[in-house]
Design brief:
With 351 residues, the protein is α/β, with parallel strands linked by helices. The longest helix has 20 residues. The chain is globular. Strands 3, 4, 5, 8, 9, 16 and 17 form a 7-stranded mixed β-sheet that branches. A 6-stranded parallel β-sheet has the order 12-11-10-13-14-15. Strand 16, helix 10 and strand 17 form a beta-alpha-beta unit. It has 2 domains: 174 residues, Alpha-Beta Complex (Quinone Oxidoreductase, Chain A, domain 1); 132 residues, NAD(P)-binding Rossmann-like Domain (Rossmann fold, 3-Layer(aba) Sandwich), CATH 3.40.50.720. The chain has 10 helices and 17 strands. Helix 3 packs across helix 4 and helix 3 crosses helix 9. The structure holds zinc ion (2 copies). One zinc ion binds next to helix 2.
Length: 351
């Protein structure tokens, strides 16, 4: 393999599970005809970065460079790139390649690629090389997996939209959140606080279900119409049969029957957070209201672009805390303590 045109880049990497981050250098591949070299400006911290860096899901590839909420500027393009030019503001989310030929790739739902979509980090690409993510000064990605950041959207707030944004936008769209629909958002963290804004902008009536009343005023400022504490049992009786859609952004095991009881006939409980243990519920909770339990995985590239355009047009932005590269270990600890409102974003110029 010819290595002369590879690009070295500084990264934050963990040498093995649960070790502190180190600043090291890796090589990004030589540009292929459809590749884009991106100078990364901001990289968001997603809870799944922590699961991966701690190897909680197993199979971790180390050293690991996490990060799949990437915002930056095009620094170079391959000979056959048509979608982008040097200087364009661009983003990369959870995936960096797919087969491009299966029915799901062809319909713009690359996340379900039958050959297996390639994750932005902690994955092996189709040549068997590990992928390294966005805690990095530069990344090389094929143009099919790069989206445009609209002018109206700051690069720092755009980065969390590439995972947290599309993960919530896609199910809200798929299950028709809109005028006349009553939507509940469970959990008000990195995902939930963006979900509220999207559901509200789509025209739905939005209720937030959070453990305590602590975040009520902020939820209303994000566009929520109503707010209830799930620690109060009266919430579930008061809201019985209320919602068309409940979007669960929490990754703890819930009393699923209690949540299903808040759905109308034909209502759906959609999960985007995965609990550690299998869920238990009574099938009667589904039968009695023709209700459904569903899941949703991020979103396709075309929909990710649509989501960014919608966010720019509607003035939707995650609430972020920008940190330096040397603060990532501390940020992980704070995420685990739920001590962040609502998303950490690394300023890559500090790397
Ligand atoms: Zn993520
Ligand atoms: Zn495919």
């Amino acid at each position: 393999m010819c290595q002369k045109n590879m690009t070295s880049t500084r990264v934050l990497s963990v040498p093995s599970a649960k070790t502190p981050f180190e600043q090291t250098t890796i090589q990004r591949r030589e540009l292929r005809p459809h590749d884009i070299l991106i100078d990364i400006k901001f990289s968001g911290i997603c809870h799944s970065d922590i699961h991966s860096a701690f190897d909680e899901w197993g199979g971790g590839i180390f050293p690991m460079v996490p990060g799949h909420e990437i915002a930056g500027v095009v620094a170079a393009v391959g000979t056959e790139v048509t979608k982008f030019a040097v200087g364009d503001r661009v983003g990369v989310g959870c995936f960096v390649d797919s087969c491009g030929e299966c029915e799901y790739c062809l319909s713009g739902e690359e996340q379900f690629c039958t050959k297996g979509v390639i994750s932005t980090y902690n994955s092996l690409d189709y040549d068997g090389n590990p992928t390294y993510g966005g805690y990095s000064q530069k990344i090389v990605v094929t143009e099919r997996f790069v989206v445009r950041i609209p002018d109206g959207l700051g690069m720092d707030v755009a980065s969390p939209l590439l995972c947290a944004g599309i993960t919530t936008y896609s199910p809200l769209k798929h299950w028709n959140a809109g005028p006349g629909k009553k939507v509940a958002i469970v959990g008000m963290g990195g995902l939930g606080h963006v979900a509220i804004q999207f559901a509200h902008a789509m025209g739905a009536e939005v209720t937030v279900l959070s453990r305590s009343m602590n975040k009520k005023s902020e939820a209303l400022s994000f566009g929520a119409d109503d707010y209830f504490a799930t620690s109060d049992p009266a919430t579930f009786t008061e809201l019985a049969g209320r919602f068309d859609l409940i979007l669960n952004t929490v990754s703890a095991n819930l009393n699923v029957d209690a949540y299903l009881s808040m759905l109308r006939v034909d209502g759906t409980l959609v999960n985007v957070g995965a609990p550690p243990e299998p869920d238990n519920y009574q099938v009667f909770s589904l039968i009695m209201g023709r209700r459904s339990i569903a899941g949703s995985l991020v979103g396709g590239i075309r929909e990710t672009q649509e989501m960014l355009d919608f966010a720019a047009q509607q003035g939707i932005a995650p609430k972020i805390e920008v940190i330096r590269a040397d603060q990532v270990d501390e940020a992980y600890e704070r995420v685990l303590r739920s001590d962040v409102r609502y998303r950490f974003v690394i300023d890559i110029s500090t790397l």
